[in-house]
Amino acid sequence: MEPQAAGRSRWMRRRARRAGATPKEERSSPCHYDRYRPCRPARHAPPVARRPPSGTLTLTAGGKREAGPRAHVATPVDRRRHGGRRTRAERARDRARRERSGAAARATLRLGAARARAGPTRARPRRAAPARAELPDCHERGAARDRAARPRPRARRRRPVSTDRPRRAALLALVLLTALVLLTALAGCDRGRHHDPAPSDAPRIQATSVTSAAPRTEITITGDFFETRAARNLVFFGPAQAEVIEAQPDRLRCVVPAGAPAGGTQLTVTTRTGTSPPRSFTVLASPGAPAVQRIETTAGQPTEVALPGARLRITGSGFASDPAQNQVWIGPVPASVRTASPTALEIEIPSDAGSGTVGVATNGVASTDGPTLFVCSDTASDLDRDAVGTAAGALLRGAPRTHLLVEIDAQDDGGTVWEPDTSALLAIAARLDERLYKPGAIAVLQPQPFASQRTSWTNADLAALQSGVRDLYSHGNTVVVHVQFVAGSYRDNDRVIGLTWRATEIAVFEQALRDRLGPLSPNASRAEQAVLTHEFGHVLGLVDVGTAMCTPHEDPASPGHDINSDCVMYAEISIRATALQIRQTDFDANCKCDLQRAGGR
Question: Which pLDDT does position 39 carry in this prediction?
Fold first, then answer.
């Protein structure tokens, strides 16, 4: 058969090759029809499909051996038969393929044995045998070799996405926010002794309903940044304070005081945030009725406090020159007139007089409005010497103690006067007016400095200081609370910034308070307001030191203090980190309930 195969035409040989026959000359020379272009098989050329001999054993789906043609196994092209030499990698790849084929055969045998033990199963349809790959001709192998030799484009390596990127962004935002808060605090921190409020927050007077009015005439003031509570707006016509009837953020309704001097004067409004620029106003003279302008000492110093038996001067207009034609009252108690002139009266305070409004009548015509005079004592009463909380009832309820006066002394250590901010004093006056029932009046005096070099204080030191600097004590219908602002710290505990050590005695360690707040402190007046409110709470008997509790809210870890950290009666003052502000500035609901049950508002 070999000669016949050799004599075939090219077309017949190609057809026989496609049918699966491989003539001897084709096996010996794969490139016999293109002898002038030797061809090497491609590295990854498809394997040659060979027809297996008959009479061999094959594996079926059930795992049994049956006689039949050998299963088709694709073998790689032998480079030695085609004039080439296989590489080490190709030999290793062929070895791995043979091992995988053997492992697959062993797994099939084990699977067939297991199925045979399990019993007959439903036979699965066999897949169609894959088409046999044919060895491409020489030109196709050359093209495959060229494609294999062509460098493949290198896959672009994608940069892994970092999971820390959102965390880094959040950390950067937090750092920027902290820096912004610190810069804002540095720009607005206290550079002197006090922090003045922003001018934009101070009240402003835009207009008045009239430009001139007689005393006891009601007028309306329009403007900006007024307090909504009438007691927190102080309206002055020159030195005379007017009564505020109604208050709104942009409108105040008040009465021109009888003590306002006749003629042109300056109208101002003062709140906790500052004082408005003055505005011109004309006070008309009231014919026939006397008017009280102010109360002075015999030396000419304005005052609103007097001791029984002291002599004072009343200045105003419409008085009679004859002392007998002038009558003066301090509340309901008449006072004797020593000397008289059309513009001044000198009087003597009776021993049984209490605090009240000063009224003058000349020839039977009386002034309706006048300033309030606080009559106090210069010796301590039993109320002032009692323990903390015993004065709560006298302070909270109205009669018989209808007036409250707060006396303040501040230490001067030679370089600094450790006094509180004016806005803090206005705030504590408004807080007391809000919670106490005092139909007479509540007044907070301006701080009076005293010289001392002491920087460490005990209760005995504070008692000795109090006896030397305190001038006023409770008397008649008036309760006097004494507050002393000192330098240094408390010897028993340097973290203490406020102390209530008697029924009407409060000590504030102003220097320790400022040192604790530090250079990045918020408005110092808010801290002073919180400390004063806290200590006045103890004077009023909070928490359970003289005023009974509606519901238990005393902190077991700190007796005498509230368990609620947001209440001003908490044991410590806390600063809000996000805004650098004092957290506690007012009583909580439990403390307010205690005050109302004891007689307060």
Answer: 46
Contact status, residue 223 vs residue 201, Cβ threshold 8 Å: no
The tokens for 477 are 């219908």
Taken as a whole, the chain contains a residue count of 601
How large is the angle between the packed helices 524-539 and 510-517, nearest 10 degrees?
130
In angstroms, the CA 508 to CA 472 distance is 19
- CA dist 79 and 551 (Å) reads 100
Residue 324: is it exposed, middle or buried by C-beta count within 10 angstroms (0-12/13-18/19+)?
A: exposed
Which of 349, 540, 343 minimizes the C-alpha distance to 437?
Answer: 540
> For the chain, how far is it from start to end, CA to CA, in angstroms?
130
Give the three-class secondary structure for 335: strand
Beta-bridge partners for 265: 281
Spatial distance between the Cα atoms of 530 and 95, rounded to a whole number of angstroms:
88
- Domains contained in the chain, CATH given: 202-283 (2.60.40.10), 291-375 (2.60.40.10), 382-597 (3.40.390.10)
What is residue 586's three-state secondary structure? Answer: coil
Please give the residue that has the higher pLDDT: either 209 or 6: 209
DSSP letters of 71-108?
A: PP--B---GGGGT----HHHHHHHHHHHHHHHHHHHHH
CA distances from 72 to 48, 58, 65, 68, 414 (A): 11, 10, 16, 12, 112
Q: Give the single-character DSSP code of 394.
A: H
Q: What sign does the CA torsion over 456, 461, 467, 470 have?
A: positive
Residues 573-582 pLDDT 10s? 765 433 345 6
The residues near 5 (Cβ < 8 Å, ≥ 6 apart) are 13, 16, 23, 24, 25
| Encoded amino acid at 38, one letter | P
Q: Are 537 and 568 in contact (CB under 8 A)?
A: yes
Q: pLDDT exceeding 70 applies to what percent of the chain?
A: 72
